[in-house]
Amino acid sequence: PPPAGAAPPGSAAPGGPPPGPGGRPPPTPADVEVSPRAPSLPATEAEQARGAPIIAIEVAGNRRTTTDEIVAYLHERVGQPFNPETLTKDVRELWDSGFFDDIEVDLTRSDRGVTLRVLVRERPTIRSVAYSGNSELDDEKLNEGVEIKAGSVLSYPAIRRAVQKIRDLYAEKGYFLAEVTSEVQPQRDNEVKLKFTIRENAQLSVRRVTIIGNDHLPEAEIREGMVTGQQSFFSFGSGGPFRQDGFDRDIYYIQSLYLDRGYLAVQINAPRVMLTPDRSGIEVTIVINEGPQFRIRTLRIFERDENGKEVEPVGGRRHLREMVRARPGDVFNRAELAKDLQEVRTMYRDAGYASVEGEPQTDVDPETNEVDVQVPMVRGPPVHFGRIEVRGNTKTRDKVIRREMEVTEGELFSETKLERSKKRIMALGYFERVDVSTEQGDDPTQLGVNVEVTERPTGTFQVGAGFSSIENFIATAQVQQLNLFGTGQSLSVQGQVSGLRQLINIRWIEPYVFDTTFSAAIDLYDQLRIFNDFSQRSLGGSLTFGYPIVHPQLRTSVSYTLQRDTVSTGNASTFFGTSSAVSVFQRLPLANLFNDGLTSSIRPAITYDTRDNRLFATNGVYLQASAEFASPTFLGSENEFVRYRATGNFYYPIFGGVVLKMRNEAGLVSSPRAEGVPIFARFFLGGILDLRGYRLRTIGPRLPLNATLDPNSIPIPNGANIGGNLMYYQNVELEFPIIEKVGVRGVVFTDAGNSWNLEDLYCRAAGGGEINGVSGVFGGNRYAVTDPCFSASSFGRLRTSWGVGIRWFSPLGPLRFEWGFPIKRLPYEESSVFEFTIGNFF
Predict the structure, then answer these.
(1) How many CB atoms lie within 10 A of CB 31?
(2) pTM for the whole structure
């Protein structure tokens, strides 16, 4: 210890200088160079005001932003002590709000305290946002993509983001070279107009798609379901335009394809999309890491209750297991398993268990490449249908919709019946869209049903026109209301006028007579059909009753017809006036073979109909068979014949709105009388309604006749068309969308058919032999396809044609513009026939 009174080491002696480092004496002034002292800055106004109370905060320069909104950003408050650091933070937060281009704060000190004055200069407001140069994307689509809206505050970072977003939107459509610039145009009242100028440039096509890593799946199989890189009708040899949504769908498709083959660990790396060196197209590379293929080691499906205890399933354990087709040792197939489980869930829901759960649980073993699958079913409580609400039907009455439903309030829940109800409502043809949904009400044992419909126009005014060297101008008109006064009844008035046809027809249909399942229809008509060689006038009507055997697909009906038929080779008249028939039969005894008078007939029919829409069918079948009996003994008919007809329409959707359609129709008519079948009951084909490419009612057997009774007179050119006792024709169409948004569709078709004469009467008149024997030179006819003498080889003599058309589902109805081209046409037939009309074909 130091002596008493001595200073401790490292400390200064009283009155002396402090020691140096290590206790050594400090350096003397002679040893140290003394630097001058740094000047001190005077305190700022803010520093001098620190701690003073804030007596007032004033705001100036604001026009749109209120003073309270600006003050709300400040942490400084009146009455609080002023703090310069807090003011700095307040100004920064106010700037970050994005509302201002400049902010200044003035500070005034007084004896009472500090007054702060905040002076702001607001950013302009965007008055409008405009686009120019955009044709592929409309303004509405662009407005949805960008965050800048009219009325918002101008923000240059937001403008830059909007420019990039517009480029991204165009890239999704394949326009990778699109250029976007922005322009801010000042306006009055501190407002601006924002304009985006777009230069779209060419849409780039996919030049090449490269798939790497597909060791176990053929590349052709992967490409088969892809959209990207596939040629379309309008791609003209390229791989088609690039579309981001289609590309995303392709990636999902490839992944699903592998999962359905058991590759549960498949990975698809981020695809690479690159411009070609000449910047005229793009190349896409998809890299796949397949991983191992997994097989099912065990598969167990069972039911358990809410407590986890296994219970007896609906239908029994064996039935439940048989509904799932997968077996141990099979390659795991996700799609097939999902399909089977959907059928299992449907079985439960049809039994009333609407909230059934049954999701597969998989346990993958990467060492053995096997997977264990368990499917626990939990049925939940049974539920019944609660209140059924119908919405959106402003015209159609509720009962028209409700009577098509197969479910009723209080009935046990059934998913299949609910889905069939939706299809039946849609099949009416009255609605553009039908949505059926369920919702849980206050009662957990009941499930409410909401049926929301969007009505479509059901009243149509149909007009059609055509040109013919025989008929000159042909005009048709039809006023039709398929949902009369919203009752589901149908009323139509149809008229046709041409040089050789005049008719008027009124038809009324009630699908539910007195709210029963019986249907009824009434037809009234006055028709004049003037053929090349005779005219037929029919005045009368028919009454039809129908009843469903299997509702609603299978129906039976019976029709009674009473009409007065007049067949003439002279003048004839209807409501439209008088028309003169120019007939080669006028001075020939063959006219005596024409039977006419009162026809009283009954026609039973059976119909099977599964079409998804009665007006615009895209899926399903329509089959009908009928037999018409006209008997003098039982029905008091002056004419006697039996006529059979069979129709089969088939509709099959292919992909992307493309629909394959086929119609087949056959007919047979006979009479026990020696003079044969009345000519008005025979079959005449040709025209836009059956065999396109040929003029109306020009297809069938032709009778060679001379111009007069003199056998040496000049023969009638091409003979006289007498119609057939037997007929068949077929239409095959491929209908595809062209401009889907406006309902423009295209069609490619081929037709085939003919009608044949079975009566020996006409065969002998043509100079032929026995009707079932081998005739002479086609019974005196030069062309086999028009031979009036029938033989077994006649079935191979079909008239064929092909053609194209455009259909537009306009507000007036479906317009048909079709060009038909005969195959192996006869010399007197035209090389092509163009016709158009309004209305569906079949």
Answers:
(1) 7
(2) 0.59
